[in-house]
Design goal:
Radius of gyration: 18 Å
CATH topology: Rossmann fold
Strand content: 15-25%
Number of strands: 9
Number of helices: 11
Order of helices and strands: EEEEHEHEHEHHHHEHHEHH
Largest sheet: 9 strands, mixed
CATH superfamily: Alpha/Beta hydrolase fold, catalytic domain
Helix content: 25-40%
Oligomer: single chain
Shape: globular
Strand order of the largest sheet: 1-2-3-5-4-6-7-8-9
Number of domains: 1
Distance between the termini: 31 Å
Length: about 280
């Protein structure tokens, strides 16, 4: 683990920023340290840890905030030969282990919500709970036509990628790799795949649900996907909708950070780590 900055009091009790090696890559991680409840933030598919700054600020210094950029995301996380969903779930364990954290509350937006749901289901003794922000909806939205649409969209985006990569706003992945990742997410989203994962969760979970469209969706497509939560909450009493907010998928972390922070507090109270 390469440290960029630590305090003399130790990296696990004070603020730390550095690189965490995992598999064939390394991830840029920030840990505020301190004795508070550890909250691990899981980004959107091609987003960065900076997206969480308003939620982190609203929760404040009484919590221990751990953010990181996934493989090839942001300005510092390194490229990898593996951008699979399973690699993303493994990275959760790698970051927590590197920071000496055994139990944490996970919060994920979009793609990160899927990662958080899988991690919470697989680690009931380590998850204090999960907040899933407009993601992890069990719905069969991927078909052949959608797959073609996704590949076409990322090919078009690739024209602007070289300049945007300098800002860290676009991952250092090829258009094909980004499309493959998005298509894999469609397969993971299928009700027969994600439904059993959500049914197996035994820790408190709160969804914060956006309104309107998301990038690449059409018409009421995204709203229809969100209705799949009805069956989830009917089957699993540990999972509830914490809030339905007015902002859309892309703006939810910016405009409705207070509702997201409130869901974190509620889950922490239910998980026995209340504040």
């Amino acid at each position: 683990m390469t440290e960029n900055s630590t305090s003399s009091t130790g990296s696990h009790s004070s603020q730390w920023t550095g690189m965490v090696p995992v598999d064939d890559t390394a991830l840029a991680v920030t840990d505020t340290g301190g004795p508070g409840i550890p909250v691990l933030y899981l980004n959107g598919q091609f987003a960065t840890q900076g997206y969480w700054r308003r939620v982190v600020a609203d929760l404040g210094p009484a919590w221990r905030h751990i953010t990181y950029d996934e493989r090839a995301r942001g300005k510092k996380s390194k490229r990898s030969a593996d951008y699979s969903f399973e690699a993303a779930v493994r990275d959760v364990d790698a970051v927590l282990a590197a920071r000496g954290i055994d139990r944490a509350l996970v919060i994920g937006w979009s793609y990160g919500a899927f990662v958080g749901a899988h991690w919470a289901a697989r680690n009931p003794g380590r998850a204090l709970g999960a907040v899933l922000v407009d993601g992890a909806y069990p719905y069969d939205w991927l078909d052949d036509a959608m797959e073609r649409r996704i590949r076409k969209m990322f090919r078009r985006m690739s024209r602007f990628a070289p300049l945007l990569r300098l800002t860290g706003l676009v991952p250092r992945m090829t258009a094909e790799q980004m499309a493959d990742s998005n298509i894999e997410l469609g397969r993971i989203s299928r009700e027969r795949e994600l439904g059993p994962v959500l049914d197996d969760i035994t820790v408190p979970v709160r969804y914060v649900v956006a309104s309107g469209s998301s990038f690449g969706s059409r018409g009421d497509e995204q709203e229809r996907i969100r209705t799949s939560l009805d069956g989830v909450t009917a089957r699993n009493p540990d999972i509830r909708i914490g809030a339905k907010v007015a902002s859309n998928h892309g703006a939810i972390l910016r405009k409705d950070f207070r509702a997201i922070a409130a869901a974190v507090r509620e889950v922490a109270d239910l998980g026995g780590g209340g504040r």
